Amino acid sequence: MIRRMVPQVSIREEVMFKEAHVPWRREMVVEVFKSFAKDGQLSKHELKAAFDKLGSRWSTFRAWRALSYADANQDGLISNDHEFKALVNYALECGYEL
């Protein structure tokens, strides 16, 4: 009887991948927030959804903090260019990664 030689592959063999930490670029963060600003403004609920998209573990907290940080006229919305820029800066400071 002739036995075929079959290579043995161990289940323990693992392929190691180097983990890459790639931060969100400003342009990408801007696009995420714009995609949730259907009426040109961002509410707390829209901010929460945007922070979910960015990968936040605490999106409700981040939405609240973002409004505290960026909502200059305190109307509960990110509603002008100045506030939007402050919001993007806040999100970038959070250090989200792709």
Q: How are the SSEs placed, and which strands pair?
A:
Elements: H1 26-36, H2 44-54, H3 59-70, H4 81-93
Helix pairs in contact: 1-2, 1-4, 2-3, 3-4
InterPro entries: EF-hand-dom_pair (IPR011992)
Protein name: EF-hand domain-containing protein
Protein model, in words:
This is EF-hand domain-containing protein. InterPro entries: EF-hand-dom_pair. It contains 4 helices and no strands. The chain is an all-alpha fold. It has a domain at 26-93: Orthogonal Bundle (Recoverin, domain 1). The termini are far apart. The mean pLDDT is 90.
Q: What are the secondary-structure elements, in order, as H or E?
A: HHHH
Q: Do you know the CATH architecture of the domain at 26-93? A: Orthogonal Bundle
As residue ranges, the low-confidence spans are none
What is the rounded distance between the termini? 56 Å
By DSSP (H or I, 4+ residues per run), the number of helices equals 4
Which fold name is given in CATH as the topology of the domain at 26-93? Recoverin, domain 1
Shape: elongated
Number of strands: 0
State the major sheet.
none
Strand content: under 5%
Going by helix content, strand content and strand pairing, the class is: mainly alpha
What is the helix content? Answer: 40-55%
Q: Calculate the mean pLDDT score and round it.
A: 90
CA gyration radius, whole angstroms: 22 Å
